[in-house]
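We treat protein structure as text, and this decision shapes the records that our systems exchange. The remainder of this section carries one protein's record, kept here as part of the documentation:
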Amino acid sequence: MPDAAYKRVILKLSGEALAGEQGYGIDPNVIASIADQIKEIVELDVEVAVVVGGGNIWRGLSGSSQGMDRATADYMGMLATIMNALALQDGLENVGVPTRVQTSIEMRQVAEPYIRRKAIRHLEKKRVVIFAAGTGNPYFSTDTTAALRAAEIEAEVILMAKNKVDGVYTADPSLDESATKYDSLTFLEVLNKGLGVMDSTASSLCMDNHIPLIVFAITEEGNIRRAVMGEKIGTIVKGDA
C-alpha cells in the first residue's frame, strides 16, 4: 500500500456537514460515514485531529445580528461545537477508533481541557483528537481554530471538508452558473479576491505558518483518503504559487 502524503493532518468539519440533507441538527448517518472515512486514514498511520463547527445547531453571527450580545452568541456557538464533537467521538468509537475530545472551555465531566502537549501525545498514540469550543474566545471562528491548532500541533495540512461545494469557485456555484473552480490558489489571492474559503484571520495564520489548505467535498465518500494520499481533488491553497 502506498504511503500517505501527510502524516499529521487537521480535518476541519463545518457543523452543516454533520447535518446532512436535513440542514440542521446531527444526522447519525453522516456521523457514521465521516467516522468510517476517518478510520480509513487512521489505518494508513496518519495522525488525525478534527476541528468541528457548530452551525448546524447555533451560529453566533446569526444570534448577534438579531440583537443578542455578540460574545454571548459566540459562547453559545462554542457549546454547539462541543455537542458535535461528542457525537463524532461516539461515531468514531463505534467503529473502533480511540478518540479524545479536548475543549477550550473547561468541562471536565465530558471532555479534557485543551493542553497542547497532551494533544500531541494522543496523536502519537494514534488516537483521534477532536478540538471543540473554538479557541475559547468570542469573535474567533472555528476556521481560525483550525489554523491555530494546526500551527500548535505542527500539522502538515488542513483538510477543509465542505458540505455543498467541491472546491473554491470564482463565485457561489449555486447562484452563478458561470462560476468556475480553482485548482490552486495562494492565500494572498484568497484575501485579495475576497473568496469565502475561510475568514481573513484564519487565512493569515495559515499563510504566516506555511500551512496548506485543501478544500473538497465531504459528501463523496473516500475524499478524505484521496486528499491524504495526495490525489488532486478540490482546490489547494498554499502560501505561494
Notes: The two ends are 31 Å apart (CA to CA). The first strand starts at residue 8 and ends at 13. DSSP finds nine helices and eleven strands in the chain. Residues 168 and 197 are 7 Å apart (CA to CA).
